[in-house]
Amino acid sequence: MKDTVILDIETLGSVNNCVILSVGMVAVDSTEDYTFKELIDNGYYAKLDVKSQVDAGRKIYKDTLEWWGQQGKAAQHILKPSPKDMHWSKLREDMISWLTNHDVDTHTVKVYSRGSHFDFGILHDLFRITEGCEATELPWRFWNIHDSKTVVLTLLGRDVWDMGVEPEGFIHHDCLHDAAREYLTIQKAIYQFQDTLSKENVSLDYRGVPINESEDIPF
Question: d(Cα 139, Cα 90) in Å, to the nearest integer?
Fold first, then answer.
């Protein structure tokens, strides 16, 4: 069972009602280690049609368009329309179908992004406002939303940008690449935290939680 999903989106704005260019996800068993290639090869990627979103009332923001003009060519391909681009109204069901096919329970899976407001806020606006779905029809449950930046800050007291995770072949602002890197960043933070505990001779219980050696271990 895959118990964790990391997602990332690329957009034409930073406001909840903006156009979404693409969505990337990786689904993992949090007890396993993964390589960047494994995550990419088994990940989810959807490039969305822009015009149909604009027709539905979603917005393109000038400042974000200017920002895209400053990015690398490898990332800018997302701006070029294609006949294969997905209509926005098909995204939610497509995501749910992919998650289900990859052994993910959408009712219990923990879903992460880098920051809990940008990606989820924009996707929820698309699904709940533009499409009109119910909370129970989302690809996840809102109480299972988490933030990778907080994981790193809590475990290590460091900003996620300081982790230095940039795998070979990584493309900045490719949403699937960003999602895969984000899981590798969480993975690295957990190992560094465990290494710190080991050096300080801190004991862990069966869940990997620090315990007081004088106390009974709960079973």
Answer: 12
Confidence of residue 217 (pLDDT cuts 50, 70, 90): very low
Q: What's the CA gap between 104 and 130, in Å, rounded? A: 26
The answer, as to whether pTM is greater than 0.85, is: yes
Beta strands in 74-218 (DSSP E): 110-113, 145-147
Supply the CATH number for residue 111's domain.
Answer: 3.30.420.10
Of 42, 46, 57, the C-alpha closest to 8 is 46
Q: Decide if 44 is inside a domain.
A: yes
Q: How many domains does the chain have?
A: 1
Three-state SS annotation for 79-96: HCCCCCCECHHHHHHHHH
**Residue 55 lies in domain:** 4-199
Facing residues of 2 across strands? 104
pLDDT tens digits, one per residue of 74-129: 888 899 999 999 999 999 999 999 999 999 999 999 999 998 889 999 999 999 99
Do the domain assignments include residue 208?
no
Q: Phi first, then psi: what are they for 152, rounded to 5°?
A: -65, -45
From the CB of residue 211, how many other CB atoms can be counted at a distance below 10 Å? 15
DSSP character string of 158-171: --GGGG----TT--
